[in-house]
Structures are given as C-alpha cells and as structure tokens.
Amino acid sequence: MVNGNCTLPHVRRLWLVRHGVTAWNHEKRFCGHSDVPLSEPGNQQAQWLAGQLHSRSIAALYSSDLQRAQQTATRIAQHHEQLAIRASEVWRELFFGDWEGLTYTQIAEQYPLHTDFFTDPVHTVPPNGEKFPHFRQRVYTALQTLIRFDETIPGDLVLVSHGGVIRLLLCFILGIPVARHWQLRIDPGSLSAIDFVSGEQDISATALLSLLNWQQSSAGID
Length: 222
Prior knowledge:
It is a single chain. 29% of the residues lie in helices and 19% in strands. The protein is an alpha/beta fold. It has one domain (11-214): Phosphoglycerate mutase-like (Rossmann fold), CATH 3.40.50.1240. Helix 3 (67-77) links the parallel strand 4 and strand 5 (85-88). Helix 2 (40-53) packs parallel to helix 3 (67-77) and helix 5 (132-147) packs across helix 6. It starts with a strand and ends in an 8-residue tail after the last strand.
C-alpha cells in the first residue's frame, strides 16, 4: 500500500515455539544435542501448538533438526498445505558435553569444580561442551538469515527450537544483555511472538514482544 510517496512498512510476525516436553525435560535432565523424542504429554502439547497456529498464514517453518523439535514442527506443518520444514542443526540447543543426560544434582556431585556455569554461563563451559560464544554466534547468524526471508511472500515465520535458543533470540531482538538470558522463562510446549518490520537491517529497532511463554495451561485448557 502506498500513501503519497511513502510505502507503508510491512510488519512480519515471528513465532518462537519451544518443542513439546520430553521424558528428560520431566526428569530435569540436560538434553542439549541428545536426540530425545517427545513424550506422550509432549505430543499433546505439539498438537495444541499446531491448533493455535492453524489459522495463521505461514510463509516459512524453521526447526532444529533434533527429533523433539521436528516432531513438534511436523504437527504444525500438517495444518498447512505444502508447508515444508526447514530443519537445521544451527537451531540446536547448547551442547552440554559430558553433562548431557544428567540432572543438576548429578552434575553438582560429579563435577563440583565446574558449577560456575550456572552463575556465569557466558564465560564458562560444561566439560567437553560448547563454548557460549560459539553458541551465541551460530544462533545470531541464523537469525540474520531468517529475518531476511523473501519479503514478497506474505505470512508469518515460525521457528521451532529449544529453550536456550529462544532465550538467546529474545535477548538479541529486545536488547537484553545475554548474561541475563536465564531470567527469561520459556517452558516446553510454549509460544512466544515477536512483530518486526520486514526488511530492516536491525530487527531490534522495530521489534515488539507480542506474546511470551503462552502455554496450554495458561490458555485455560487442562
């Protein structure tokens, strides 16, 4: 639409979807890159998520390549004819190395000299795990590609990923210091949404947080 000589900005919505719950999530185990499938409650959450997005026009659906994310994305795609899942390892959670599959209690018992990670994750790293600067860079680079999706194709963008990735993205987009990302609660099976002006070089300049950590329970559904 054109008003005089000015073209009105095109606002695009980015849905940030955390995959449904897994048995490891329920047991509070660190999943990281471990390819854990959805539990039955997780499948139910994925179906609920798909229901919330079924009436939206979706231009592109991105996903982590781990099966808990892809299973969730598949549920969403089933409601949209010919919507392909753009799965990639760049959207994986932080790799926790030797801590994968362990609970916090087990980590504290087995790795008492490495627990600084829980107070300073930006500057410390789990044994044989992924350094936070690498995690931050791969997610940031992937975000720059995602937000430049073809402006001529209308519709929302949807990303199905993991808690750490979504918290990091929200920090980038909203200008929150990355060191404080743990203060953003993103539960399994939740929806968050960012509206931004498509085509802008700096997404944070126009971004509006429209929804945060919306879940089946908070929607009044048991």
